[in-house]
Amino acid sequence: MALEALLFDVDGTLADTERDGHRPAFNRAFEEFGLDWHWDAELYGKLLAVTGGKERIRYYVDHFLPDYVKPDDFDALVTQLHQAKTKHYTTMLAGGAIPVRPGVRRLLDEARAAGMRLAVVTTTTPQNVTELLKHSLAEDAESWFEVIAAGDIVPAKKPAADIYHWAMDEMRLSPEQCLAFEDSHNGLRASRGAGVKTVVTVNGYTAHEQFEDALAVLSDLGEPDAPFEVLQGNAAGKAYVDLALLRRWFNE
Ligand code: XBP
Ligand code: MG
Q: Cβ contacts of residue 159 below 8 Å, gap of 6+?
C-alpha cells in the first residue's frame, strides 16, 4: 500500500519538551501548592517511565514518597496540580521557549507540499499541543494536521496503542497506510502495537532505550547542513529524512 499519512508524537519528537519544559512546569505547580516536591533532571528521567502528567504525579507519590499520607481529596489535588502545571507549561510555550527539533519544519513543509495527510498522536494535554504548534512552528500550524489525538481522549495512554487506533479511525486509514514518528520506547510500543511502521528520533532521556522494532533510529531528522546520526537501520547514505527516504523505509 502507498504511504498516505505521517503521524507525529509531540513530546520529545516534535520538540524536546520534557527536561526544560514539562519538568519545570511541574515544579512550579508544586511550589504554588506549598509542596516541597522537586523533580530534578535525573529523577524526572525515572518518572518518564509513566506517560501522562496526572499519571506521573500519582506514580511519584506512590513510588518515591513512602511517608506521604494522601489527603481525602487527593484526586482533586492531582487534578488541580495538573491544571496549574498546564498553565505554567503553556505560558512557557507562549514565550517561544521551546523550538521544534532539527528537520521537523523542513519535513512538514515537504509533506504538506506533497499532499501527505498529517496527524498528531500524543498523550499530552490538547492545550499543550495547540500552544506548541502555534508558537514553535507557525500561527496556523494546528490547521496543518487533520487530526490532533491528545490527552484523555482515550483512557489508556501510551504505551497502549489506543490513541493510534483512535487517530486512524478518525482518518479512515489503516496502519498499512501510515508512518509514525516517536522518540521513546513507550511511544514505539504504542505505534507498533497499532501496527504502524515507525521512525525513532531519540533525545537525552531516551537514547539508551531499546527500539528493536523501528524502521530506523536516528539522533534527529537531520538537515542538509546538519546530518543526523544513524543509531540503527540503513539510511542509504542520506543526511536527513525526507519523503524519499521515508518511502524507501516504508516499502522495505
Ligand atoms: C508525553 C508525556 C506527557 C508529558 C506531560 O508522552 O508523557 O505526559 O510529559 O504532558 P508521549 P501532560 O511523548 O509518549 O506522548 O502533563 O499534559 O500529561
Ligand atoms: Mg514522546
A: 51, 185, 186, 187, 189, 190, 193
Q: What is the pLDDT of residues 33-62, one digit of tens each?
A: 999 999 999 999 999 999 999 999 999 999
**For 209-231, what is each residue's pLDDT tens digit?**
999 999 999 999 999 999 999 99
Ligand 1: distance of its center to the CA of 146 in Å?
Answer: 21
Ligand 1 closest atom vs CA 85: 16
Grid cell, residue 231, equals 543509531
Ligand 1: which of 16, 19, 48, 56 to mutate, most ligand atoms within 8 Å of CB? Answer: 56
Region label for 151, one of left (φ > 0), alpha (ψ between -120 and 50) or beta (otherwise):
left
Positions of CATH 3.40.50.1000 in the chain:
5-16+99-251
Ligand 1 atom with the smallest distance to the CA of 51 is 7
Entry pTM: 0.97
Sign of torsion, CA 146 150 152 154?
A: positive
Instruction: List the residue whose alpha carbon is closest to atom 13 of ligand 1.
Output: 11
> For 5-16+99-251, which CATH class?
alpha beta
List, by residue number, the catalytic residues. 9, 11
- Domain spanning 18-94: CATH 1.10.150.240: yes
Ligand 1 atom with minimal separation from the 123 CA: 15
Instruction: Report the pLDDT value the prediction gives residue 50, as an integer from 0 to 100.
Output: 97
Where in the chain are all domains bearing CATH 1.10.150.240? 18-94
